[in-house]
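Worked example 4.2. Below are the chains of a multi-component assembly; read each line carefully before continuing.
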Amino acid sequence: MTPKHHRSMVEVFAVASGKGGTGKTTSTLALGMALADDYDVTVVDADTGMANLLFHADLADVETTLHDVLAGGTPVGDAVYERFGMRVVPCGTSLAGFRDADPARLREVVARLAADTDVILLDSAAALGSRAAVLPIVLADRVVVVLQPTIPSLSDGLKVQEYATTYDTGVAGTLFNRVRDDEAIDAIAEKAARYFEGPTLATVPESDAARAARRAGEPLLAYAPESPAADAFREAAAGIDVAAGDSGAVADRFRSAVVPEEP
Amino acid sequence: MKLPRGRLQRQRVVEDLATPLSNALDADLTGYARLESQDALLLSADGVGVLTFDGGVPIVAYHTGTDVGGPAALADLAVAGPYRIELFELEADALATVHEAADLRVPPGMPAERLAGDPELADRTRAAAPERADRATKAAQDRDEPGAVEAFLDDEAKIAAIRERAREEAERRAAEWGLDEIASDETD
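Applying the procedure described above to all two chains together yields the following structure tokens:
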């Protein structure tokens, strides 16, 4: 049974790592495309200070982005684009756009999108240094923690998990990305699993295809669907047990959480 | 094993070790880095990390607090930032004895991978590692010690400290940023 026809289900995931360079945006779009086989998926570039999803999803030239919505006056619908079988809400890259954006409006954006989709993926900021960067983790039902098998990445991933649990956000699982050392990863993943909640969703090998996809402005699963990395992302998506929610209640929850209220 | 103090080249507080490692490589530094975690909560804050370089390429890692050398020392060096880092220049001769200690050596790319999480910098460092990759270094490379990351994950006290600190930070920020209500309003 796919919930695609049950409009009352929605779950919001933040894809987060706490550290740059883990391939979070590639992961967000890959998970989104894989989940789109079974669900209506909306992907939001919630990294409003260092947006890059637009470059991965053939959206570099669009007029209206999340920045305009967060600045006020632009309806969310104007920043939603149908791409690669998903709805995609890109964010702009200008400093002025970031300055004018009110991160608190992200809650209302999520609330509006929640009324009309099964799964929302929030591509989150690479650091936890600001309110805007932490909000996606606060707003999400669960986080997907993207890790590399390195000490800084594991350390920052643990930090993301502590933030999530502090804000009553669950952990959907961890994803090891850009893995180069095949031999060491199993032992590392097994040891890491002792500290992380949720399953290890997949181990994604470092891939030239991911870089080539980025250059081509396409998600990995569109550009190189047969690559080992794409397979691993599909495996990860299959491991995420999307929970049913009541979209009305979820939308209400996000609305009631809007602080400060818009005038 | 004592290192002469040497000439101070740089001194700064950084969140991320990619920059100093990259600086050492680009500056062709022969000498050492002294790394001090600014985090008093973590056990290994009781000592300092030392990473030596020959021509910008890391050779030896050692932690004075845990008295551990080699790849395992990288785990002790790799506590969460910020770090106070000082780069010192030394004559190659002054480092010769230390560099002969095989049990303190690390593969050239490992610090960039394990401390900075930067595979590109690791590749660049390996490429810069001259043919003087003698047997000791080569042996370490061949084993491709998974030691550092696994040693880190085996250190339950350190991980507990990282988590505890993150939890406190998350709670403090929830209050600062008005996230408290949202967090408590969320129901499953």
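Take a moment to check your reading of the output against the notes. The first helix of chain B runs from residue 18 to 26. Chain B touches chain A at residues 16-17, 74-75, 78-80, 113-119, 144, 146, 148-150, 152-154, 159, 162-163, 166-167, 169-171, 173-174, 177-179, 181-187 (CB under 8 Å).
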